[in-house]
Design brief:
Length: 403
């Protein structure tokens, strides 16, 4: 009984993260077109089903159902499905490029009294398009095995979506950096040309002496093995979202066997948050661990300082083991406390894994939106600055010529 209860909890949590196959209701006026779209990555199976329902009870009872024209297109404008004079239909395809897939509906027959018609559209995307009944009959499985197969498919789908979002974020970041660089370069060029024109005019009219000096610089769960310098510090950072548990173990290791067998140099350690709040501080240690729960998203930094020197010729390294989120959980203690084992423990781990991926997915979507907004604001600000600098230089040059 307890196994089935755990399984039900996992299924409920998993289905929340799944791209649900939900019905969309459209109210379509006479001789008008309405479209809906869905952002889908490539190599995903899509099934769609639509049906026309008359919104007027009088004509519905008379068995009058208006006909529509249906067209489904890919992000590049390729026609995937086209139907004329339809009242019901289905379409299916496998995506070949990522982007917005568009389904447009247009009323063909005129309804008396200019009444509207309702269209029910149901999208089934990815794992939702799988026919689990047929799979169960073909594979001769049922019960827990079938639910585990569904969860496996769900995990793969969520993982692929996570990789897709990370790739989209990288592409957005690269595009933003290239755009910012191009606009900044154009701004610098326009400003430089205006300064050169003004300098030539000043030199020719002998009004002022040219003195221009311009110099601009563009400043420009995992084990980490750090090689410590003989002096100074060494820092590492990890980008973590907020409300995540972090556990870290560290140990100082000396290469080879030094002349003093029991000698290990000690270090100092400081851990700070993205807003420079001190989370952990230790002096004169050779090993240890620390843990905290993040309160803001960003780069969490751990810095190590050498307090004593190692014997000559001996390298000093620090082994650092980050355990973040689900990796920081003590599953043995949880199993003993909950008195579970084997398949129940595996299902509990899977539930936590699905929740962690879902939270990471939401975090990446939020980061993508923030990156897009920052890119738009930066581009607008740089473009405004470029236009203002060009206008000021033109006005200055005009005033000098007139003077």
């Amino acid at each position: 009984m307890k196994l089935m209860e755990v399984l039900k909890v996992v299924v409920v949590v998993a289905m929340v993260t799944m791209m649900a196959a939900e019905a969309i209701w459209l109210e379509l006026p006479n001789s008008e077109t309405k479209c809906v779209y869905e952002d889908i990555r490539n190599n995903v199976v899509v099934l769609g089903e639509y049906i026309v329902i008359h919104a007027d009870e009088e004509h519905a009872q008379a068995n009058f159902i208006p006909t529509i024209s249906v067209r489904v297109t890919s992000p590049f404008g390729n026609s995937l499905h086209h139907e004329e004079n339809a009242t019901y239909g289905r379409f299916a395809f496998t995506t070949s490029e990522h982007g917005n897939y568009l389904a447009c509906f247009r009323m063909i027959s005129h309804v008396p009294g200019n009444k509207n018609a309702a269209i029910s559209l149901q999208w089934k995307i990815g794992i939702d398009a799988s026919d689990w009944d047929s799979i169960a009959r073909k594979e001769k499985i049922e019960g827990v095995e079938l639910e585990l197969m569904k969860l496996k498919g769900l995990g793969q789908a969520v993982h692929e979506n996570l990789l897709y979002l990370k790739k989209r974020e990288e592409e957005m970041r690269g595009l933003s950096e290239r755009t910012n660089g191009a606009v900044a370069w154009f701004s610098m060029m326009s400003l430089s040309i205006c300064i050169m024109a003004a300098a030539v005019q000043i030199w020719r009219m002998k009004v002022l002496k040219l003195l221009v000096v311009a110099t601009m610089a563009m400043t420009a769960a995992e084990a980490i093995w750090l090689e410590m310098p003989s002096s100074g510090d060494k820092c590492v950072y990890e980008e973590i979202r907020n409300n995540v548990v972090v556990l870290v173990n560290y140990v100082v290791i000396v290469d080879n066997e030094p002349d003093q067998p029991n000698f290990i140099p000690d270090i100092s350690l400081k851990v700070i948050s993205p807003f420079a709040n001190k989370l952990h501080h230790e002096e004169n240690v050779t090993h240890g661990q620390f843990g905290f729960t993040t309160t803001e998203p960003g780069n969490y930094m751990a810095c190590f300082f050498m307090n004593s020197q190692a014997p000559d010729g001996k390298g000093v390294h620090i082994g650092l083991d980050w355990k973040i989120g689900i990796a920081s959980k003590d599953w043995d203690s949880i199993a003993r406390k909950e008195k579970i084992k084997d398949i129940e423990l595996v299902l509990m781990k899977f539930e936590a894994w699905v929740q962690a991926i879902n939270e990471k997915l939401i975090y990446l979507e939020k980061r993508e939106e923030e990156m897009s907004e920052v890119s738009e604001r930066t581009n607008a600000a740089v473009a405004l600055f470029s236009g203002m600098s060009l206008s000021i230089c033109i006005l200055a040059a005009t005033a000098q010529i007139w003077y």
